[in-house]
Amino acid sequence: MKKSGVCPKCSSRAIIGSAYLELVSQHGGTAGIAVDGDPRAVMLKETARSSLKPLVCPQCGYVELYADDVAPLIAANEKAKRWS
Questions:
Q1: pTM here?
Q2: Cα 1–chain centre separation
Q3: Tens-place pLDDT, residues 27-39
Q4: d(Cα 48, Cα 75) in Å, to the nearest integer?
Q5: What is the DSSP string of 5-68?
């Protein structure tokens, strides 16, 4: 959907790009994704984070999620590979 602008489920072109994720909890916050650069560490895991951007099809409700900032996630993943 991100590149084509078309829903892969129903072929609709009316994609909602202004949606955002909410954490469903009593404390609120935003939903995101994280990668630990040092997954074996108990503390100071060198975690990289990015918020998630949803694209929503208003016809069938299909949702795709994309990381807003992929570069830190890639760097942390490369660092984590050294520990495995």
A1: 0.67
A2: 15
A3: 555 677 788 888 7
A4: 8
A5: -S-TTT-----B-S------STT----EEEEESSTT-SS---EEEEEEEEEE-TTT--EEEEES
What confidence tens digit (pLDDT) does each residue in 41-80 have? Answer: 888 888 888 888 889 999 999 999 998 889 988 988 898 8
Is the separation of the CB atoms in 83 and 38 below 8 Å?
yes
Residue type, 23: L
Task: Tell me how far apart the alpha carbons of residues 82 and 79 are, in angstroms, rounded to a whole number.
Answer: 6
Q: What are phi and psi of 62, to 5 degrees?
A: -60, 140
* Bridge partner residues of 56 (DSSP): 16, 63
